C-alpha cells in the first residue's frame, strides 16, 4: 500500500475547489475570489465586487478547459482556423459561460445559500461592445460555435479601449456617450506581456542583394509601435473544447524615446507614447468605411500585422518550416477590414523569411478566405494610393506586384478586353487613384462567400461578376446563423424550459434541428396555453424595463411589433413610421376596425455622422410623443424607443416580440441575423424577399411569414426604368396625407421644416423605394392584425417558426465553413478527471 502523498492530495483538493462544478465548490471558490482578488468579505462587498468574484469563479473553470485544449492543439498540430475580424460584438460573458459550463443552476443555488441573487449579479456586467452591428455580432456567434463544434480556432481582433458608444435619447435625439467598458476591469481577459510584436508605419524601402545574389527589399519604417495580446477564453457548449480570442492593444515600444529624452524633449517623448496608444483606443462607430481616415487604416494594419506575426510564431514553434503554413492555418477575412493581411503575409514571407515570390504567393493564396457582408457601393472600402503609400510603402509595392501578375492573367484569359482589366484591377484609376480592398481580398483568397443565398447570387451577378467569370469555383454561399445558447437559453429561459419539457430532452441546444420535435405537439391545447404564457411573461418583463428606461408604458396584451437594428435608410425604419402615422390617422378618423392594439417598439443606433438616420430616430420619438400623449389613440397604439440597443438589451427584446420587422429594400440586406433571433423566440416576421428572409420563409413555411414588397429584381427593374417616387406620393391619397402630416409640424411643435430633409428626400429621390413598397406594406400589416386576432392560429404559427428554425444556428454555418471552405475537422478535447466533484 502506498502512503498518501500530502502534496498530491493538497493539489487535487485545490483543483476541486477551483474547477469543481458542484454548488459547494462554487461557493467556496466564490468566497475565495471575493477575498483574495477583490479583497472583500461578504458584508462589505459592492454589487460589482460580487460580479467580479462570480466572474473569476467562472473563469477558473474555463481556464481548465482552455489550457487543456491548448495543450492538445499544440501537440497534435491541429489544423486551426484564424478568424480575422476588426469587430467582435461579444455581449456579456458570464451568463453564457455558466450555460456552456452547465452550472447555471448550481451557481444560482450557491448564490442563494450566500443570500445572493444570480440575476442581479448578471445585470452588473458591462458588455464588451467591440463592434457596430451584424458583422461584429456574427464574429462573436461564430467564435462560440467554433468551440461548440470543436474546431480549433483563434479569433484575432483589436482590444478597443472604447467600444461602440452608449446611446442616450435626449429630446428625442440620439446622443452618444463614451463606452468606458474597461473602467472597472475586465475579469475575462488574460494579458500576455510576452506576446508582443512590433508594427511599423511610414518610412521607405531599400533594395539589396542577398547572399545568393537575389534582389531583396527591406522596409525601414519611420514609426514602430508594439501590439500586446490580451486573451479571452471562449468555451463551447456541452464540450471541453475552448478556443482563444486574442485581441491586440497598441502601445509604445519603450516607455521613452531615449534620444528625445536625452536632448531634453521630455514632452515630445511622452507624446509619441500617447500617439502609439491611440491606435487601439476607439472603435469607429460607423457601419460604412471611414473615408480617408488615416487612423482607421493604421488600426487595420496594426491588428493584421500582429496576427500574421503571431501565426508565423506559432507555426515555427509547433510545426516548423513555413512551407506547410497553409496546411496548419486557414485565415478567414471578416469583410475587407483585415484584407491587408494578404499583403502583410506576403511581406513577412518575402522580406523577413526570404522566400521567393512564387512560394510566398502560393502559401498566402492558400491561407486566406474572404466573406463579403454588403453590396452597398458606399460600404466598399477603398484607400487612396497616396495615403497608403505614405503609411505602408512596402505594402504598396506588393499590391502593385500582385496586381501586375493578376492583370496579366486576366489579359491572357480575355484577350483585348481592356475594359474588364480596368474593372478588375486592384487599383481604381481615373480621378484619385484608390486601392480596392474587395478586389485585393478576392484575388488573395482561395474562397469567397456571401452570407445568404440571395446575397451570394448577387455577389456573383453584380459586385464580383468579372471575378466569378474568371474563377467560378472560388465562390460559395454560407448562410449566417446565430448561437441558440445566447439567443434562446440565456435570453429566454422560460421558452427554453418549455421546449425542453415538450420535446422531453434538451439536446436541441446542441442540435437545433431537433426543435422540430415541437411540431408534433403544435395542436396540444396545453402547449398553446403554455406558449402564450411564456410570451406574455417576456412581454411583461420588457414592459417593466421600458417603463423604467424610457418612461413609456406598454400593455403586454397589445401586439409587440419590433424593429431593432442599426439605423440606415436601406433598412427602412421610416417605412414603419409611415405605418404608425397611418394607424394614428385611422384611429383619429374613427376607422380603427382593422386594427389591433399595438406597441411599436424600435431599437438601434445611428452612426454619429449619419444625419438622415439620426433624423429618423428623432421622428420616431416625435411621433411617439404625440401618440403616447393622445388619450384618443393611446389605448390602441403606443410608440417606444429602447435606448442603447446592444447585445444585453437585445436579449430583453427578442423574447418579447410578437412581430419582427425585416423590411429592407430587397437586394440590400446581405443576410440579417436579427431576423433569425426574433424567429427563434417565436416572433412572426413581416418582411421582404431580402437576405436570409428568403430562406427563413422557406424554412418556416410561406403560410407562417408575412411577405410583402418588390423582389430584388423588380426593384432593380424599377430603378433602371426611372423610379419616380413623386408619382406614388401624388397617386396614393393616404401616403400623401401621412407625409403631409409630418410636414404639417404636428410632430415637431409646429416646426414645419424639421423633417423636411427626410420627407423631401422621400418624395423626390427615395433611393430605397419606401414609397413604392408603402401600399404593399400597409396591406400586409392588415393581414398581420387579422391574424393576431385569431390567437390560437397566431400561437400555432409562432410555435412553427421556432420548430423550423434549426437551420439558422451558427453551429450549422460553422460546419459548412469547416467542410466546404476551411477543410478542417473537429478535434475533441477529452475532459480530464477531477472536473466533477
Ligand atoms: C452586416 C450586413 O448588413 C447584414 O445583412 C449581415 O447579416 C451581417 O453583416 C453579418 O453578415 N454588415 C455589417 O454589419 C457591416 O458591413 N458592418 C461594417 C462596418 C462594420
Describe this structure in words.
The protein is α/β, with parallel strands linked by helices and 837 residues long. The protein folds into two domains: 77-92 and 127-477, Glycogen Phosphorylase B (Rossmann fold, 3-Layer(aba) Sandwich); 555-790, Glycogen Phosphorylase B (Rossmann fold), CATH 3.40.50.2000. The protein is built from 34 helices and 24 strands. Strands 7-10-11-4-1-12-13-17-18 form a nine-stranded mixed β-sheet. Strands 21-20-19-22-23-24 form a six-stranded parallel β-sheet, with helices on both faces. Strand 5 and strand 6 (173-177) form a beta hairpin. The chain is globular, with a radius of gyration of 28 Å. Mean pLDDT is 95; it is low at 833-837. Residues 87, 132-135, 138, 287, 335, 373-374, 379, 451, 480, 669-673, 691 line the site of N-[(cyclopropylamino)(oxo)acetyl]-beta-D-glucopyranosylamine (8GP).
